[in-house]
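Notebook B, p. 112. Complex prediction, attempt 2.
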Amino acid sequence: MKEFEKKVKKRIFFSRIYIATIIIFIILTRIFSNDEIPLDFISGFSVGIGSVMMFYMAQYHKALKSEEELEKLYIEETDERQQYIKSMIGSSSITASIVIFTLGMLVSSFFNLTVFITLLIALMTLIIVTLAFKIYYNKKL
Amino acid sequence: MKTRIAQLRKERKITQEELAKAVGVTRQTITSIEVGKYTASLVLAYKIARYFDMTIEEVFDFSEEEL
């Protein structure tokens, strides 16, 4: 459990760094505003991720306060059924994404070349990354 | 897969929560195993069997599995 406690503390530390970076970034975007780059969108997106991180940070702080809560969090994270669900989500979402991208490519090829090429690049990247992980895990396990 | 976990728990007056905590999984995992939605890993099956002081075969029913 000590190892897990260290891990949780490390997560809080990195979350704090991320949130501090966002705050600095937002301040800088207010000083050096540029019409060409959609800074409002980028900062909005970063704040969204930061909010999720703050939610998890609150959960981690709560876990660090008592041994029982820490053990509960550890069980939730290492539960084998949850791990299995995660791996199922991973494989299903890859298959679904490939199908959606392929259909999107077929439809967009009639209307817009830029969208078609963008989807093609996204699809190729997804396939290459998936194959790379498949090779890696086949060798590792 | 069919199991005798629910029956053994009732006999020994153990809650799902207590069993889950003892073997290091969530209560939902124990529920899923009991109703046959999820098949426990070998390690978890061993932990559950050991918790009841029995063998894996005594807790888990392999008769309908293709061996």
